[in-house]
Design a protein that fits this description.
By secondary structure, the protein is mostly beta strands. The protein is built from 2 helices and 10 strands. The protein has helices at about 5, 125-135, and strands spanning about 10, 35-40, 50-55, 60-65, 70-75, 80-85, 90-95, 100, 110-115, 125. It has a 5-stranded antiparallel sheet with strand order 1-7-4-9-2, with no helix packed on it. A 5-stranded antiparallel sheet has the order 6-5-8-3-10. Strand 5 (about 70-75) and strand 6 form a beta hairpin. Bound molecules: thymidine-5'-diphosphate (TYD). Thymidine-5'-diphosphate binds next to strand 2 and strand 3. The site of thymidine-5'-diphosphate (TYD) has 6 residues, from strand 2 and strand 3.
Length: about 140
Amino acid sequence: MNLREKCKIIEFKDLGDERGKLVVIEGGQSIPFDIARVFYIYDSDSTIIRGQHANRKTDFVLINVAGKSKVRITNGREEFIVELNKPMMGVYIPKMIWKDMYDFSKDSVLLVLANTHYDGKEYIRSYEEYLKEVNVD
Ligand code: TYD
């Protein structure tokens, strides 16, 4: 499976009607894991780069519920960029994949769902260390 196949784009169902839009996210259904943690990132801008890490244990889904941002996703060999620009789409980033989030619009609210509780020790924050762990010379 290549990186794009692994890091799937998820299109959520639009349950909107004339009263407005509604998107439902259910762990184990549209999200391929049980959700243990939710956090959101806002008030970043186009000069900021966030993420810059891989996680040994955590799978994530990222959704821009407002505004837009980009995510650069790499496994050290392959790389691709996803623009998150609608509340009905997300990207699944499983454990041991490196990610950078950047190019935030001023109104960006980036919602992140995770399958673990926070543990700073499971983060790999050095790209060199990451390449070693995934056996890329
Ligand atoms: P950080 O991992 O640097 O954010 P990002 O991946 O968006 O660049 O996290 C910023 C701070 O917040 C850092 O001190 C750790 C803390 N934090 C938690 O306490 N719990 C969490 O679930 C997350 C994601 C971060």
